[in-house]
Amino acid sequence: MATSPIVDPTEQRAPAVAPVGLLRLDPILLLGVLGLAVCSIAAISETRFSELAMRQGVFFGLGLVAALVISQIDYSRLRELKWALYGLMLFGILAVLTLGGDTRGSRRALQLGFAELQASEFGKVLLCLVLAAFLVDRARVLRDRQTTARAMLVALVPTAMVLASDLGSGLVYVVIALAALFIAGTSWKHFAALFGLFAVAVALALVVLPKAGVEVLHEYQVERLTSFLHPSDDPSDAGYQQNQSVIAIGSGERTGRGAEATQTTLKFLPEEHTDFVFAVVGERWGFVGAALVLSLYALLVWRALRILTMAKNLFGAIIAGGFVAMILFQVFINVGMNIGIMPITGIPLPLMSYGGSSVLTTLLAVGLLQSIHVQARTARKGLNL
Q1: How many Å separate Cα 87 from the centre of its chain?
Q2: 90 HSE (CA, 13 A, CB side)
Q3: Which residues contact 108 (CB under 8 A, 6 or more apart)?
Q4: What is the Cα–Cα distance from 257 to 266, expressed in whole angstroms?
Q5: 210-236 pLDDT, tens per residue?
Q6: What are φ and ψ of residue 374, in 5° steps?
Q7: By C-alpha distance, which of 301, 363, 325 is closest to 177?
Q8: Considering Cα of 348, then 353, then 354, then 355, what sign does the dihedral take?
Q9: Mean of pLDDT values over 257-282
Q10: 137: number of CA atoms within 13 Å, CB side?
Q11: How do residues 236-266 score in pLDDT, each as one tens digit?
């Protein structure tokens, strides 16, 4: 008598759209996102750029709709599109480098009239998907040196393109790649070699090559990377922003200065609605406000890690791990540069800094996390039937 083949139910694909998917969303993750959206709009409305608060609300509205739509799609289907997504990422970055508007000596975005499109931001999500698919396709040789080398090559091509205009996003790309390799189970020896190569590259870019007359980084990028070490050496130039940010946060003390805030409302602190929005929170609402924002990020990371452990397959686990690293790294660097312990790299504070590309990118990541959660719960329910 013929027997039917054994099928692992956890690997069966759910329908492209799950009718009951909305009931299986992670409500706590959604609550954390909504909390940060409220904090972002409130903080921006208290700056000199208060008129942008409504536009930020529109970005959140569009992003949340996109996230809900993506949450109802089986993320596993994206694995088959990895090279198309990779090509789209490279095309977008190249388009910005060739057609983007010149802002402070670098090209970071395409001017669309009503908004700016930063391809390097959307590339963060695309890189997570591409690396996850690449590593899953090589699941049988994940600990092989060639797998690690090829995965890093896949990541370093867009990284090199982005570094020409956006140092911060380039660093995020590298962190995403390392996180993907870690979740996939890459040997610690490979990580040791990668960190050694990274140290050599930093020494060459910042010390050796400049002395030989070869400038790898722009002068303003070098100033940003090194000014935090000695902010008082040039308080009117390279160290000005961080000095003003530290003053703003310190003056907020326990509960903030409220309407008496001056550093972030009287033009003392540049870019207070983007790179230094955390300083606005610190000055106006003090330690209480800053603690609330950081608690919401802790909530996001906790739920993302939980989703990572729930994922029905390695593809979903690597995607979730990449997003966790992306959010954690950006929060750490941005908050660090606001309080003067990290260099200014232009990395936005996710879901807090003003900007459509940054907000939409993070919400697309949240949508994919919700999709992983929905598919995991659907698979578990199928097992219990």
Answers
A1: 20
A2: 13
A3: 96, 100, 118, 120, 165, 166
A4: 14
A5: 777 766 666 666 666 666 666 655 555
A6: -60, -45
A7: 325
A8: positive
A9: 85
A10: 16
A11: 555 778 888 888 899 888 998 888 888 777 7
Lowest mean pLDDT among 187-196, 222-231, 271-280, 333-342: 222-231
How would you class 216 by CB atoms within 10 Å of its CB: exposed for 0-12, middle for 13-18, buried for 19 or more?
middle
Q: Which two tokens stand for residue 174?
A: 């590298």
Per-residue model confidence (pLDDT) at position 243: 85
The tens digit of pLDDT for each residue in 334-381 reads 999 999 888 888 899 999 999 899 999 999 999 999 999 999 998 877
Residue for token digits 């924002």?
293
Residues 6+ apart with CB under 8 A from 362: 63, 327, 350, 351
Q: Are 260 and 41 in contact (CB under 8 A)?
A: no
